[in-house]
Amino acid sequence: MGNLQLIGPFTQLITMAGLPEKGPISDEKMGIIPNGGVLMNYGVILKVGEFDQLYKNVKQNSIDLIEFEHEAVALPGFVDPHTHLCFAGSRANDYAKRISGKTYLEIANEGGGIWQTVQDTRAADKDQLFDDTLKRGKSLLHTGITTAEVKSGYCLNFEGELKMLKSIKKADEHTEIDLISTCLAAHMKPRDFDGNTEEYLSYILNKLLPEVIGKNLSSRVDIFIEDGAFSELESKKYLIGANRLGFDITIHGDQFSQGGSRVAIETGAISVDHLEASADKEILSLAKSDAISTVLPGASVGLGMPYAPARKLLDAGNAVAIGSDWNPGSAPMGNLLLQASLLSASEKLSNAETFAGITIRASKALNLHDRGVIKQGMVADIIAFPCTDYREILYHQGQLKPNIIIKKGKLINV
Ligand code: NIG
Ligand code: FE
Predict the structure, then answer these.
(1) Which residue has the least CA distance to atom 6 on ligand 1?
(2) Which residue lies with its CA nearest to atom 12 of ligand 1?
(3) Which domains does the chain have, with CATH numbers?
């Protein structure tokens, strides 16, 4: 097999190139290449254009041709910028309580919630955890997600957090999907930690994080800033310390109360995620910052709560990314395309804004600048749906699945 590959023709090739980095995007701005093709070399995009033209301009015997007879709308591979898919156990018990009327924070205060999953994940054998993480990662790839972020945060002690991060790293090495790990040891103070929240943060900052970065297990840290988790002040100190160690910062903020987005701005976070509780003040301040606003409709669905104000965030000038937040508690569904479709219907997001939220803007939320767009020099992550018009995709609300998935130039069997 040669290294040069030509794929197409795509009825519509939606490159997501040349779109504004922040703020609203109308569908007219989305460039569509009819009968498009992509020339790839060693998993990197070499040329994008009209298929027949590309074909004519290469030495035909020097390329591998991946040619389709059927209709196909191509987009960059989707990026899920926020998941907690490395976990053990089930929280069906919490869910039953929630749909009977108890709130997420009430359940957490009773000893359920994240702490339940911490006990299950601590008890899980590392091979089992790896297997489950791998299985979930693969399942995402088959829905067109070619990159997904995965957080630790369900062991909350030195050994356990390393066990999680190693499982994520090993899973990443065993499947084509790129799994980008984030250390979320600051998810909550574990109930068995002997000390206060500030002491717990200083323990993970001084003991765990140097090991994590030294062993190349993650270069991102996350923290849950909320009543019952960590305060603004202590979070800031922790994040500044983590940043000094070389970590990128991301934050669970403004989920139930405001504060997290403020810390995100002050600490130069790459993204701030959730934002369901953000009001006009937070939205405007965020728009002036470089932080990506990542909204998590799956958590709203799972908690039966309103969506984050995605429309207002965009109108104020923010870059909005969309993540699934797949986790056993607040967001057990883990279906990004379905959730993005539902969000777009409720929040009134255009196709362009929604797709940008799960491609180019989601990549930026992970500080990745080599994907999320189909253009020269980018990683060849390309997916295609069996339809003739890109608008069919959101219209089918997650029910139309991609039937062509290409990861780093490799055709994945779906
Ligand atoms: O993003 N809000 C905090 N963390 C997760 C939920 C984790 C869990 O409930 O297990 C979230 O919703
Ligand atoms: Fe989350």
Answers:
(1) 330
(2) 330
(3) 4-76+373-412 (2.30.40.10), 79-365 (3.20.20.140)
